[in-house]
Design goal:
heterodimer, A: about 240 residues, alpha/beta, Rossmann fold, six-stranded mixed beta sheet, four-stranded antiparallel beta sheet, 10 strands, B: mainly alpha, two-stranded antiparallel ribbon
Chain lengths: ~240, ~350
Amino acid sequence: MSEILKIEHLSKHFGGLKAVNDVNMTVQKGEIHALIGPNGAGKTTLFNLVSGFLTPTSGHVTFDGHDVTGAKPYHLCSKGLVRTYQIVQPFRGMSTLDNVMVGGFTHTNKVSVAREKALRALKITKLENKADVQARSLNLCEQKRLEVARALATEPKLIMLDEVMAGLNPTEVTEVMDIVTGIKELGITVVIIEHIMQAVMSISDNITVISFGEKIAEGKPDEIARNEDVIAVYLGSDYAI
Amino acid sequence: MNTSKKSTIVRLAALAAALAFVLVLAECLNSYYLQIIIYIFMFAYFASAWNILSGFAGQFSLGHAIFIGIGAYTSTILYVQYGISPWIGMLAGGLLAALVGVIIGFPCFKLKSTYFTLTTIALANILLLLVQNTRKLGSIKINGARGIQIPAVSGNSLAAMQFVDKKYYLYVILGMLIVVLAVCQWIKSSKMGYQLAAVANNQDAAESLCVNSRALKLKAMAISAFFCAAGGTFYAQVILFCNPARLFAESLSDKLAIVAMLGGKATVFGPTVGAVIVESISQFASARFAGTQGLNLAIYGIMLIVCIRFFPDGILPILQKLVRRLVARLRSKGETTK
């Protein structure tokens, strides 16, 4: 296995607040890598830094062998790094298919090709029977899957999913988990931010834990579950073994 | 697939019928009514051009008179002072306006929604004041607030774009409208249309899906400005006069927005529908209530309020829904009689 994403000494300061502080992280090609941590730990900020929506104060991001620190989102996306949003951001006035087609145009100018790619992405995310529905009338679970479908239509090498399972009921969570493992089987690397621990523990190959902007642990799911620092951060130091 | 092919055939047939109707109408009407129809088409054209930037790309401009004025002034100056045909002036004005549009867009597209709109209003007013207070620019005579008169040519001259018989103006603007509608249709059904709609809906999400929103908006701005300026040339040729109070006016900018929104923003035919409704009502009102100053404007205002309150998406989507319902009813009736 080789590394596809490498984050070195990445920091982002908002005034005096160190939202992300000197974080190192490596993602291997083909794995599902989870990013966890308590609320406000800096997970989404880290995502924004990597996906180009924020420029880091210091540090480097290397994607697929290229230094992409501070690159624009559309530039990163055409190189194969795409992200979804925690708060769903559908194009409300457009149909589900049209939403996904916007992603489908990444490597083509042809409408028919984009449509084909979009339909494939809708199939993976099990939205094919909603293709003609207006995006605004989808329910939350469907909108979350729409986010994933749009990202998949860009034919990425690495997809960054920001809390795709948050706010879903247990049945819906299993559905989305299947979709995420399905994406991995397509050979796409997945970085996922998630709070639902059963999901994280069962699907991810590696986990990075951050707290107050700093990385406190990294490893396999069972190592993380036994890690004292992680337990202290989540449950309080009294519960640390 | 078959039904979509059928519907495009039906649509084309409807367009051809409308075109034939207008051409026949041009033969029968007197010059007063012809003038009204010319204005309807001209505003349909302007609003369609406005719609490319403000409807499709969602960048709400209230300063498009900038481009109309630039188009009108460029061709008029070239014609009056250098004897260059307005047709070439139209192209030159269009290109100049596209360039100005890009220069405006470059810093201004960093602004979001309302702030962009406010900037366009300010820029249009600045340009109005500048033109009003400039007599000469080097060797070019601008004549300040007095404006430039276009010397009339006798008879119908295609080269000078001046016609005594008004129906030729109608043919010209009809041709221009068809071109701009074809461009709109092409944009709407191509990659650019999907990406513009994405930017109009949610710029950040669009950016994360490989859409270079800045470049795309600049492109939309250039196209929109080009067509507005070309229309500006036509406007100047119809009134044979170029004055800042008319061509750089805020009310002109507002009218484009009103016409397009009333008809249906971000649709291909919405602005045309809007122009037919707004322009015919406002012409009727100003003729019928000529004695009562301001009543026509009141009618205009009431129409606008009703429209925004009850059909914010414009009239075209409602018309389409009605037609679809009618077709469905006819079809079900046909099946029962079988």
